[in-house]
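Worked example 2:
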Amino acid sequence: MLSRLTIVVASFCVAAGAAAAQTKTFQSQKHAFRVVTLVEGLAHPWSLAFLPDGQMLITERPGRLRTVSRDFKLDPRPVEGVPRVVATGQGGMFDVALHPNYPENGWLYLAYNGPGEGGWGTELMRGKLEGQRLTQTQVLFRLEPKSRGGQHFGGRIVFDRQGHLYLTLGDRGDKERAQQPDDHAGSVIRLHDDGRVPADNPFVQRPGARPEKFTLGNRNMQGAALHPKTGELWTHEHGPQGGDEINVIRAGRNYGWPVITYGVNYGIGTRIGEGTHKPGMEQPLHKWVPSIAPSGMAFYEG
């Protein structure tokens, strides 16, 4: 039985380096957090995953996948066989996640900013780690249409209890894309573990819509996690100036961006869209005004 359930939202990033090898304590509204540097020498670490033997996989935004031993020693050799990554602005290598049955099948998944006609965009691949090399790699998804610019890629991977894979996609800095069913941007997508589209996805039967889409109206979700009690998918996303949100993701729902938001235009403070509420559009479970720039999410059970 859970004695305590806490949602932890990372609102800052500590770049691991020689100057950071100290223990620090941070006080939140309800809890104190002790931060200890375990690994040094990383460049823009974005995500990590633990292998069954206790080793860690860490992505670096410039386009590398690194391995760390159980005693926290960083292998100087990046993993070979990773996809070509466009590291520009906020774009690069994003999440790494293990298949729920990783001990049996060995699949690991990477989200990253990949090149294509018209520019670049978030992509998803899987492969198997053999030593310091990815093998049997398969690209499972490519955001379409591609565009230029360095903003709002999303890039977080989550598996649900039924084995479906969810990937968050930002609006690519073009807010109107988030309301377009024929555009992947500004949404959560849902796939089978091999990249196939589930037959019960909410937009499968909608003419012209992207069948991978699971939601509409999202701005830029960089945090996502399953609620340990309910199994629901929770995400958080960056608002503009103000209006960061936590949302519970449900099939076919419209989360409002940019029609409704609690944020305003940067610098000038003018209203975006039609206000904060509109019928048929979801309200956030929680919002932050001013923004805290959330970048990761986990549930703590203890």
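Confidence is low (pLDDT under 50) at residues 11-20. Residues 106 and 128 are 6 Å apart (CA to CA).
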